[in-house]
From TrEMBL, chain A:
Residues 8-70 form the SKP1 component POZ domain. It is found in: Nucleus. It comes from Penicillium bovifimosum. This is E3 ubiquitin ligase complex SCF subunit sconC. Keywords: Nucleus.
Automatic annotation (TrEMBL), chain B:
This is Uncharacterized protein. SUPFAM superfamilies: L domain-like (SSF52058). It comes from the Eukaryota. Residues 19-29 have a biased composition (Polar residues). Gene3D superfamilies: Ribonuclease Inhibitor. Keywords: Leucine-rich repeat, Repeat. Residues 335-344 have a biased composition (Acidic residues).
Length: 101, 528
């Protein structure tokens, strides 16, 4: 489940929630892609486990949902909207800025 | 129909000699009252019976200080004030008026209803604005002729422009504009002329009440005829020429019934895409501005709306000869001869109308079927009338912050192309959610400054979009906040450029205009 070549990576929130998503999905985010880049020799790249201390689990869950949504509709022409709860939108805006998505 | 009971004959209106008409303050206040009453008394809701009369009301000087004075006309009552079907009473004096005059003398009794603010309780939602407008309208001693240019005001504005701009409140010209708008509202005039006022900007809320403008029914002849019943829906026309406007307030775009808009001779550098919301617009004058392109939404108004007259020249438009063109939809000819079309009228006339177009690039209309008006409008856009797409410029993409993508050493083209995705960015999705929040449009910059500085520009952008009434993607029709793609299209709209609709003929010289178009995602690009 972990390691530099594994198909899945683990994203960990501040309050300890872990989300295991495919590596290519996680790499939609530029920040995570650079973290996981094996050539950079970051510990995340070696273990395949990214601890994102900035986000609570609720936000990270939505972020993971978005990453999957983005990957799913990568090549679609008519992309449906993703539902964003209004109480999370400002935190997601910050998260989007941080993760470069 | 013949045995119908005829309307009662108009009775003669008694004109009492007003006792105090020489007093100028009374004249002003009676004018004020007349304005108020004619505004607030909706004739249709007026009771058919006469208003109640009190004996003391009729005595001209029944104030306290005239208590012992002998009054000549005491005891005489007016019996009649006008016909029940709304004929105007020539004498503006009313019972209420007398009461108001008395109130000018201090009786020593204060009542709660004497507050000026209590008047606004009478009106509906924008009552405070109404009262304000009307007071300015009526108390302004200047002549009430419509659109008399404020020569005095503009002079004073020109003399000390710094003082005029430093004041946080409105300038004289803006106040005068409010007066004019108030008059139009009061009289039900559908023609609002604010030309030549030296307006630097339109104050917010100036044009908003025009949304509820209703024409007043006209009563010229006492016996009502068939054509006395006309639509009260206004044919709203707003003229703002010869000002120095560079931006339109958003309330202009909420006037759904706006038919004619003239922005001639101003300082606009661009027209916001929100103009696409004026679906009733028929005539638009944009000449003598600083426009380099037009909003693409105008084309939609031409194609689907009622817009049939766009005056857009002269303006410093981006010339198609100097622009980068990605795709030509009509073949340009480097000044070739029209060989296959033996049209009798083509070249000389177009040249004479366009003496300036001695440019290497000439685009002629080439219709494969001969142009005919029988071409059904339902089959496809008629090339004789409809706008014709001439060329499409290159597409510029924006990054997720809405800034143009710059080729820097850090984002190599290979990297950017590899991560291109058609899905909207999370920033965009979150901003769409933000823009649906209530109270976003009421937040101030100070409140926004409390947010982390990274997202403040994004939030400001979302607020702007919200205030402008939302943006729709020109390709997929979805609401968006940050555009991701942007390109120019050159369209020929020459049949709509002159007031008379000239239909195109084969071999005619096309005069394309640049239209700027936005897409909401990287998949919203020009369709080839």
């Amino acid at each position: 489940m972990s390691g530099p070549t594994s198909e899945y990576v683990t994203l960990v929130s501040r309050d300890g929630f872990e989300f295991i998503i495919p590596r290519n999905v996680a790499c939609v985010s530029g920040t995570i892609r650079r973290m996981l880049d094996p050539s950079s020799k970051f510990s995340e790249g070696l273990t395949g486990r990214c601890v994102l201390d900035e986000f609570p689990g609720m936000v990270l869950e939505k972020v993971c949902e978005y990453l999957c949504y983005n990957d799913k509709h990568k090549n679609d022409i008519n992309v449906p909207d993703m539902d964003i709860p209004p109480e999370l939108c400002l935190e997601l805006l910050m998260a989007a800025d941080y993760l470069d998505v | 129909m013949d045995n119908e009971i005829p309307l009662p004959p108009p009775r003669r209106i008694r004109h009492r000699s007003p006792a105090k008409s020489t007093n100028p303050s009374t004249a002003v206040s009676s004018f004020y009252r007349a304005g108020r009453l004619s505004r607030f008394d909706d004739r249709s809701s007026q009771p058919s019976s006469d208003p109640a009369l009190f004996s003391s009301d009729d005595i001209p000087a029944s104030g306290l200080e005239n208590y012992h004075a002998t009054v000549s006309g005491a005891g005489r009552k007016r019996r009649y004030r006008g016909t029940w079907w709304g004929e105007q009473v020539a004498d503006p004096k009313r019972k209420r008026a007398e009461f108001r005059e008395k109130r000018n003398f201090d009786s020593g009794v204060w009542m709660g209803s004497d507050e000026p603010g209590s008047e606004s309780l009478l009106t509906s939602e924008d009552g405070s604005n109404w009262g304000e407008d009307l007071r300015k309208t009526v108390l302004d001693p200047r002549p009430t002729g419509l659109a008399a240019p404020p020569s005095m005001d503009s002079g004073s504005v020109l003399l000390n422009p710094a003082a005029a701009f430093q004041r946080t409140e409105e300038s004289e010209a803006q106040r005068f504009a409010r007066v004019v708008v108030g008059q139009c509202l009061e009289k039900g005039q559908e023609h609002i002329d604010l030309g030549g006022f030296q307006l630097g900007s339109l104050p917010p809320g100036l044009l908003q009440p025009l949304k509820h403008l209703t024409k007043l029914p006209s009563f010229t002849e006492p016996p009502a005829t068939e054509n006395a019943f006309t639509s009260l829906q206004p044919f709203l026309r707003i003229y703002l020429p010869n000002n120095s406007l560079s931006a339109l307030p958003n309330d202009v775009f909420e006037l759904n019934n706006l038919r004619v808009l003239s922005l001639r001779s101003n300082k606009f550098t661009e027209i916001p895409p929100a103009i696409g919301r004026l679906t009733d617009l028929e005539v638009l004058n944009l000449s003598v501005n600083r426009l380099t392109y037009l909003p693409w939404e105008l084309l939609k108004l031409i194609q689907q709306g009622k817009l049939n007259h766009v005056i857009s020249r002269p303006n410093p438009f981006h010339p198609i000869e100097e622009a980068q063109i990605e795709t030509w939809h009509c073949k340009p000819e480097p000044d070739s001869e029209p060989e296959e079309e033996p049209e009798p009228e083509p070249q000389p006339t177009t040249n004479s109308t366009l003496p300036k177009m001695q440019l290497p690039l000439r685009i002629h209309l080439q219709l494969t079927p001969p142009p005919s008006l029988q071409l059904g409008p339902d089959t496809e856009p008629n090339p004789v009338w409809a706008p014709i797409l001439v060329a499409t410029g290159p597409t510029n993409t924006m990054d997720m912050d809405g800034k143009p993508v710059q080729p820097t050493p850090y984002n190599r083209p290979s990297e950017t192309t590899s991560k291109i995705s058609n899905a909207p960015s999370l920033r965009e999705l979150a901003l769409r959610a933000v823009s649906k929040l209530p109270y976003l449009d009421q937040t101030t910059d100070q409140e926004l400054a409390d947010f982390p500085p990274l997202i403040v520009p994004l939030l400001q952008r979302a607020r702007e979009v919200r205030l402008a009434g939302g943006q729709t993607c020109s390709v997929c029709g979805r609401e968006y906040v940050l555009p991701r793609t942007e390109w120019m299209e050159w369209w020929d709209i020459s049949p709509h450029e002159s007031g008379v609709q000239l239909r195109r003929c084969n071999g005619m010289l096309l005069r394309p205009l640049p239209f700027r178009r936005f897409g909401c995602s990287l998949s919203c690009v020009p369709s080839v």
